[in-house]
C-alpha cells in the first residue's frame, strides 16, 4: 500500500507539472479542473505515503528529508485551496515537482528514527505539528519580504522582469495570508499539544521558549484579525509578519542563549 501510494504520488505530481508547463509554454491558462484534480489526487497519495514514512514500525522520523516532504505536502495543499479562485499555475509548476522530488527522497532514505520507547505519541505529534508550522511561517516571511520589495519597485516605477512570470500581487498577497493562516493553525495545534503532552513547559529552561511562542502566536493572531477586519495589507502586513517571525525565532534560538549563556553566567 505504501509503495503504491508513493509511486502514485510521484506520477500524479509529474502529471500536474506537465499540464501546468504545457499551458505556460503555449501562453494560456490550463484546464483548471484537470490541473486541480491531478494535484488533489497527488496530495491524497502523498498523504498516505507520508503516514508510512513518518510513523515507521521502528519509530518516528524527524530527519530533514522526511520533514521536507511534509512541508512540501502542506504548501501544495495550500496552493490547491487558493488556486480554486485565482490563477496560480506558475507556483503549482514550481511546487508540484518539488513535491515529487521530496516524496521520492524521503521514501528512499532511512533517515533518523526515534524509537517508540523514547518518545510518546503525544510528543511525536507535537513535534510533527511544530516543524511544518515553523516552515510555513518561514515561507510566509520570505513572501512578505518579496512583496515589500515588489511594492517598492512599483512605487519607484521600476518593475522587475521576473515579476511578469508570477501571479498578480493581489494573488501573491493572498498566498502570504494563506501561508500565515495555515501556519498559525499548525502553531496553535503545536502549542495545545505541547501544553497537553509536555509536562515541563514552564520550568526555567523551556519557560522562555513557551512564553515567546505564545507572544508570537498573539502577534500572528492580531495580524490576521487586522487583515480580515480592517484590511491590513502592504507594508503594515510586512511589519507585523516580520515582528511575529522574529519573536518565534527568538523562542527557539534566543531561549538557548538565555538558558545556556545568560543564566549560566548569572
Low-confidence stretches: 258-266
- Looking at how many chains there are and whether they match, the oligomeric state comes to single chain
Instruction: Quickly count the helices.
Output: 8
For the biggest β-sheet, the strand order reads: 1-2-3
The dominant shape is flat
- The topology string of helices and strands comes to HHEEHHEHHHH
Biggest sheet, open or closed, and with what strands and sense? Answer: 3 strands, antiparallel
Note the gap between the termini. 56 Å
Strand segment tally: 3
Number of domains: 2
Radius of gyration: 20 Å
Topology:
Blueprint: H1 2-25, H2 32-54, E1 55-56, E2 59-61, H3 64-82, H4 89-107, E3 113-115, H5 121-155, H6 169-197, H7 204-230, H8 234-265
Antiparallel strand pairs: 1-2, 2-3
Walk me through this protein's architecture:
The protein has 266 residues and is mainly α. It folds into 2 domains: 1-119; 120-266, no CATH class. The chain contains 8 helices and 3 strands; from the N terminus they run H-H-E-E-H-H-E-H-H-H-H. Helix 1 (2-25) runs antiparallel to helix 4 (89-107), helix 5 (121-155) packs antiparallel against helix 6 (169-197) and helix 6 (169-197) runs antiparallel to helix 7. The longest helix has 35 residues, at 121-155. The protein is flat.
Amino acid at each position: 500500500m505504501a509503495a503504491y501510494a508513493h509511486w502514485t504520488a510521484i506520477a500524479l505530481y509529474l502529471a500536474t507539472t506537465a499540464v501546468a508547463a504545457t499551458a505556460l509554454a503555449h501562453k494560456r491558462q490550463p484546464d483548471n479542473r484537470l490541473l486541480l484534480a491531478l494535484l488533489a489526487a497527488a496530495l491524497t497519495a502523498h498523504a498516505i505515503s507520508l503516514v508510512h514514512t513518518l510513523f515507521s514500525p521502528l519509530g518516528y522520523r524527524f530527519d530533514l528529508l522526511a520533514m521536507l516532504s511534509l512541508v512540501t505536502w502542506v504548501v501544495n495543499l495550500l496552493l490547491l485551496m487558493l488556486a480554486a479562485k485565482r490563477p496560480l499555475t506558475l507556483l503549482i509548476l514550481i511546487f508540484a515537482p518539488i513535491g515529487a522530488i521530496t516524496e521520492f527522497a524521503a521514501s528512499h532514505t532511512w533517515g533518523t528514527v526515534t524509537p517508540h520507547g523514547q518518545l510518546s505519541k503525544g510528543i511525536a505529534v507535537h513535534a510533527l505539528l511544530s516543524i511544518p508550522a515553523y516552515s510555513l511561517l518561514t515561507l510566509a516571511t520570505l513572501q512578505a519580504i518579496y512583496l515589500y520589495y515588489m511594492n517598492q519597485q512599483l512605487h519607484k516605477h521600476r518593475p522587475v522582469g521576473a515579476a511578469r512570470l508570477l501571479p498578480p500581487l493581489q494573488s501573491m498577497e493572498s498566498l502570504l495570508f494563506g501561508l500565515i493562516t495555515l501556519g498559525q493553525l499548525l502553531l496553535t495545534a503545536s502549542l495545545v499539544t505541547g501544553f497537553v503532552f509536555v509536562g515541563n513547559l514552564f520550568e526555567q529552561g523551556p519557560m522562555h521558549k513557551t512564553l515567546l511562542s505564545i507572544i508570537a502566536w498573539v502577534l500572528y493572531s492580531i495580524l490576521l484579525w487586522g487583515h480580515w477586519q480592517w484590511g491590513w495589507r502592504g507594508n503594515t502586513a510586512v511589519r507585523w509578519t516580520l515582528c511575529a517571525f522574529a519573536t518565534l525565532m527568538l523562542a527557539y534560538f534566543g531561549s538557548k542563549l538565555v538558558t545556556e549563556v545568560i543564566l549560566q553566567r548569572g
